[in-house]
Amino acid sequence: MVSDAHVDGIVWQTDNATINPTGNWQLLGAHDLLIQWIVVDDTAYIPNSGIPTAPHLPDWDRISHAPWAQNVILGLAGYQDEKRARADAAKLADISAAVARVPTPLHVTGYYFPVEIDPTWTNAPKLAEMLRKLPRPLWVTIYDRTNIGGKTLADWLASWLPSDVGVFFQDGCGVYARDPNVAREYLDALSSRLGKERVRVIAEAFRPGEHGDFRSATADELRKQLVAYQGYSVYLFDGPHYVSDSLTRELAPRAAARQ
């Protein structure tokens, strides 16, 4: 029997299709949940926020007791459309600061501002002042579709990102931007420049499908990513959409057998 793959957390991109996330991701070792956002497209997925709510809300109390959600990094306010999110980043930061104060039953250990960053966004350094109004610990995501290299990316981030903000690096494997070994080089460069405690990795658990959509990565594809990132804190993007129970058990056969 092959050894079990390991992750520290899963990501959940909250939407109406996955309003009731279920899984056995704890078989992989997952104990952290990174929630992409609790407000998206001016719709709230939590009650009592003062923002119009989605037609159906997640059972936050149930989720708070899930073994894979012992610690939650709470994504705040975003837009699905990247251009809109970047154009309205200041507005989203204000909304985020407000909704971060809304109580939930979750064990929140950090916050995430869901306006994704890449080197082609020339106005990204303006985020620095916006991020100062958000609670800590605070995280952002960074990706690199232009393949400028880990050192150049790390130097650019270090030039403007507040030193108390952590980075989730999207590995790019889901869209074949790079292979896992190159993604590891990015992680090492980011860690060297920013400090390892500020760097975590999002392993993309999807691949392009046949019809312009996305499919789940296979167990073999995901294993290559997870092996390459050993020594870093790894989160799967995303559990409810792409990491089924059967895939989880294929990745962790020993833990599944014990269960």
Structure in words:
This protein is α/β, with parallel strands linked by helices. It has one domain (9-258): TIM Barrel (Alpha-Beta Barrel), CATH 3.20.20. Helices cover 30% and strands 20% of the residues. It has ten helices and 13 strands. The protein has helices at 60-64, 82-87, 89-99, 127-131, 150-158, 180-194, 219-228, 239-242, 245-251, 253-258; strands at residues 9-12, 32-35, 39-40, 43-44, 71-75, 77-78, 108-112, 138-142, 165-170, 199-204, 206-208, 214-216, 234-237. The strands form three sheets. An eight-stranded parallel beta barrel has the order 1-2-5-7-8-9-10-13. Helix 5 (150-158) runs parallel beside helix 6 (180-194), helix 6 (180-194) runs parallel beside helix 7 and helix 7 (219-228) crosses helix 9 (245-251). The longest helix has 15 residues, at 180-194. The chain is globular and about 50 Å long.
Looking at this protein, list some descriptive labels.
259 residues, alpha/beta, TIM Barrel, eight-stranded parallel β-barrel, three-stranded mixed beta sheet, 30% helix
